[in-house]
Amino acid sequence: MSFRSAGRRRALVAALTGWLVLGLTVLLPSPSQAAEDEEDPGGGLTVTIDTLTPSQLTADATIEVSGRIENTSDGEWSSVQAYLVMARSPFTTREQVETAVRSSSTYTGERVTTIGLFDEVGDIAPGDTARYDLSVPLDEVGPTGAPGVYPVGVQLLATDPDGVRPQDSVARATTFLPWIDDPASPIDGGLVWSFVLDPRRDDEADDVQALRTAVGENGRLRRQLDLAAALPVEAQSLVIDPAVLDASQRMADGEGPFDDVSDEAREQAQSFHDDLVALARRSSVWNIDYDRPDWAALSERPDLAAELSPQVAAATQSALDEHGITGRSARWAMETGVTDAMLERHRAEGDAPTIVRASALPQWDQRDGSLVTVDAEHGPALLAVNDTLGSADEVETTVSLRQRVLTRAALATLSRAADPESAADAVTFVDPDWIPEPRANTSALAASLRGDELVEGTTLDRLVTSGVDGYDGELPANPVSEPLSPTVLSAAADLLEAEDAVAAVSAGAAEGSQADRELASAVSVRWRSVPERAVRTAEQQAVERNGSLAGIEVLGPETVTLSSSQGSFPLTVNNPTRLPISVSILLTPGNPALSSNRLDPIDVAPGERRTVNADIDLGRQNSTTITAQAMAGDRPVGSEASFNVRSSQVGTIVWVAMGVAVAGVVFAMSRRFRRRGFRRLSESDDDG
């Protein structure tokens, strides 16, 4: 049975069991009951959940939660109060949870207003931060105890800088507490960290600063790496863009655009690079294509995609080899999603999985699992689905990340109980843009991932080997978001042509490795917000490449005179570039009676000249013009030289004519001498 037919049967089962679960679930309060949770106007206060115990509910639990409240406005907020909010009935589906975190109007519970169970925080001046602490016995909430995940969080009441005190919350933070009694078996779960570079900025200086910040002490990449390094490797996977390793090492070495960064910045970049390599060498790693090429855009240019694919693969592998990283090859399509054409090309090139967001697969459901296959002409294509239950505009913390893993596990337990064929899991992709809070408490997160009754730590690689179900839905006909423009691709094609010219003439491999990386970067999804700069950069690189070959020239004498119809003369190849080159010399005569000749290839080191002898045979011709052109394969390189070649030999007719003339002279002289002799002899006889 095909993946698609099996998927349809499971979808029918899921639909029936979903209605059954819905019928058995305690009904949530109606919108009219949610007056306490009307739309949050924001208002200059933000609140986070930094600690939460327990991580899973039991009947005798006491909920303890604490965190930070920050005043981001220009005025003072006074009489700030923090309240615990919790629903009495659980959520049982992914859709309910997702709606709750993305909509501030969704009912997530009622405030616990009992005296002594809320926190009188007090006044908070502009720019200041205060802390809150709450401790509420579960029986104060009165939950139903039904299995599922219970929304729990914090709401703030306060008087704003204008003296107005609304009855609705002015800020909130929401997470979820699972309540699953005696699960049948733990659910495979773990974290997936994506180490990728930020989108391109308006200019190179901004890019440098962005990386400087990201790998610095409190930067996005640095903090994510520190958190990942503190967690069990058997319960997490790393998705690594080799361009991150390249960029951080170049900053550490002060190369290229990083030559002006401080010594401190270089040290921090080197520390980040070394720590990431160390973690990768003991972790499950998926290596994505160098600098994340926009394959969705390239699928619209199959000719360009076919030419670029080998260069991208070479760039990726050479970077991984340089930094000593191994792992499974993968494709990145988080921004644009996948299309049929894109996936067919990927599958034709190998079995590397493609990483996508759940929103890019219209019919995907949690029961399908984080890994699915799609039927393709060359075999099943593997997709890794990022089903992030986002936190909307709320501030993500290590605690909320832990609760997202446990929430997914609880929902997967319910899914498998209702549908034995469900492949639901608790693999959770960490938002690449997330900056973990400083000095995060990782012990509780590590404990939840290490394995308990609800979660069993796993990696993407182990998930692959445990079996993958088919995705029965359709793939979008077009990318889910705007890919790179045709103008950017055209500029990349020009750069590819220029790189091909350099590759054809270059006798060294190191330059080719860097060229491959520049080509991969030319079509990176990081250019999507600044396409004009992408075009300028690619065009400038193409001009530099073409210009680097323009100085190569063949030097020869102005005139060559042969002593016969055959001979040789010197030609010199000048290589002013920084590349070792290998070229042949094509000799093209101007005389149509003569044929072209090509000398054997010669190697010329950077900045040097090399002279060789060229042989020529004019045959019956007296002279010709010769053009000497350096060639890389069939491609002319640099400037040519033209000069005249003539023979000093005298032709046969000339020699005959000269012989006849000489003979005539001899004959005439001999007659003259004979006549003079006869005359003298006659005169002598007369005298006698």
Report what the structure shows.
The chain is of the alpha/beta class. It is 35% helix and 25% strand. The chain has 16 helices and 28 strands. The strands form five sheets. Strands 10, 11, 12, 13, 14, 15, 16, 17, 18 and 19 form a ten-stranded mixed beta sheet that branches. Strands 21, 23, 24, 25, 27 and 28 form a six-stranded mixed beta sheet that branches. The chain is elongated. The protein starts with a helix and ends with a helix. Mean pLDDT is 86; it is low at 1-42.
Task: Summarize the helices and strands and which ones pair or pack.
Blueprint: H1 3-24, E1 45-47, E2 51-53, E3 62-71, E4 77-86, H2 94-102, E5 110-111, E6 119-124, E7 129-137, E8 148-159, E9 171-179, E10 187-195, H3 204-215, H4 220-229, E11 236-240, H5 242-253, H6 263-280, E12 284-288, H7 295-298, H8 302-323, E13 328-332, H9 340-349, E14 354-357, E15 371-374, E16 381-386, H10 398-418, E17 426-429, H11 443-450, E18 455-457, H12 460-465, E19 469-470, H13 486-505, H14 510-522, H15 531-550, E20 553-555, E21 559-562, E22 566-575, E23 581-589, E24 597-598, E25 602-604, E26 608-617, E27 623-632, E28 635-647, H16 652-687
Parallel strand pairs: 10-11, 10-17, 10-18, 11-12, 12-13, 13-14, 14-16, 15-19, 21-28
Antiparallel strand pairs: 1-3, 2-3, 3-7, 4-5, 4-6, 4-8, 8-9, 15-16, 20-22, 22-26, 23-24, 23-25, 23-27, 27-28
Helix pairs in contact: 4-6, 5-6, 5-8, 8-14, 10-11, 13-14, 13-15
Offer a quick outline of the entry.
This protein is of the alpha/beta class. The chain is built from 16 helices and 28 strands.
